């Protein structure tokens, strides 16, 4: 079996979305089989690219140039699914990137179990969104997409705790805030396939945020630091802008993110 960090690098260097997620799923299955057999596979080291390989399409535009469409229209719903597909593809790369990039920091094997599982789920989420798009006569790449998605990864490329604070505990937690409304839009349109796919994503994302919180707290404990203070400092350092309510306080609580972590960040320091 290839060391895990090298698996991660191979995913990052694969451009096509369906290919990338197929590889991701295959590696996750290998990892799980080894772990179920009681093995502790090698993590190894890798040289992940600063930017993951991506397909020719979608065209990446700055957010203000991505056309806004009414969510109530069929085109608007396709645009929404396309935007989520793009987020999920970035999430696949983000999950493998953290595995490949921070191998110098020794972590318990359970950290890798969590991240491999989440990477596999992100791969499934991407494919669910692609299936929905294709059922509606579209596909991932048919529309332009948000160019800034990898910024958080670049900003935190040298800071493991910063990565945990910004990616799972801010960005993925934001997903918990906005997904219920998205589900509502597709329910109103009686778009069953999209509703089911988004409900799967919503349920599994709670665990991803929880993994972030769990391992962030673990590292704070290792260094005897106050988690809330460190979280505030890292988000202010690496995240651009303030956090925007309304928050999904219930799901955030399920994921181990208490209100005093995010409310103070709705105001600039
Ligand atoms: Fe996801
Ligand atoms: Fe996620």
Tell me how many strands there are.
Answer: 2
Rough shape? globular
| C-alpha termini separation | 47 Å
Unreliable residue runs: none
The major beta sheet can be summarized as: 2 strands, parallel
The DSSP helix count reads: 10
CATH class: Mainly Alpha
Please bin the fraction of helical residues: 55-70%
Summed over residues and divided by their number, the pLDDT gives a mean of 96
List the helices and strands in order: HHEHHEHHHHHH
Write the CATH fold name.
Ferritin
Pfam families: DUF455
Region (Disordered): 34-74
Account of the 3D structure:
The protein is mainly alpha-helical and 269 residues long. It has one domain: Ferritin (Up-down Bundle), CATH 1.20.1260. Helices cover 64% and strands 1% of the residues. It contains 10 helices and 2 strands, in the order H-H-E-H-H-E-H-H-H-H-H-H. It is globular and about 50 Å long. The termini are far apart. The chain binds fe (ii) ion (FE2) (2 copies). One fe (ii) ion binds at residues 91, 118, 122, 172, 205, 208. It holds the Pfam family DUF455. InterPro entries: DUF455, Ferritin-like_SF, UCP012318. Residues 34-74 are annotated as: Disordered.
């Amino acid at each position: 079996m290839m060391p895990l960090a090298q698996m991660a690098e191979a995913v990052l260097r694969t451009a096509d979305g369906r290919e990338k997620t197929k590889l991701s799923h295959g590696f996750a299955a290998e990892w799980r089989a080894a772990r179920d057999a009681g093995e502790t596979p090698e993590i190894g080291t890798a040289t992940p690219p600063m930017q993951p390989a991506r397909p020719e399409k979608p065209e990446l535009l700055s957010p203000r140039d991505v056309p806004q469409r009414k969510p109530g229209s069929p085109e608007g719903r396709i645009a929404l699914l396309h935007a989520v597909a793009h987020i999920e593809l970035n999430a696949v790369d983000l999950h493998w990137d953290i595995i490949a990039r921070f191998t110098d920091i020794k972590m318990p094997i359970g950290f890798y179990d969590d991240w491999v599982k989440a990477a596999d789920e992100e791969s499934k989420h991407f494919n669910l969104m692609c299936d929905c798009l294709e059922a509606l006569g579209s596909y991932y790449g048919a529309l332009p997409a948000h160019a800034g998605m990898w910024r958080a990864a670049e900003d935190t490329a040298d800071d493991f705790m910063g990565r945990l604070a910004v990616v799972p505990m801010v960005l993925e937690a934001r997903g918990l805030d906005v997904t219920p409304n998205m589900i509502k839009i597709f329910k109103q349109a009686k778009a069953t396939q999209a509703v089911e796919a988004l409900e799967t994503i919503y349920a599994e994302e709670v665990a991803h945020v929880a993994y972030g919180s769990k391992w962030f707290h673990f590292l704070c404990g290792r260094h005897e630091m106050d988690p809330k203070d460190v979280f505030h400092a890292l988000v202010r350092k690496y995240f651009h802008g303030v956090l925007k309510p309304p928050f999904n306080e219930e799901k955030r609580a399920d994921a181990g993110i208490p209100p005093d972590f995010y409310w103070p960040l709705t105001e600039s320091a």
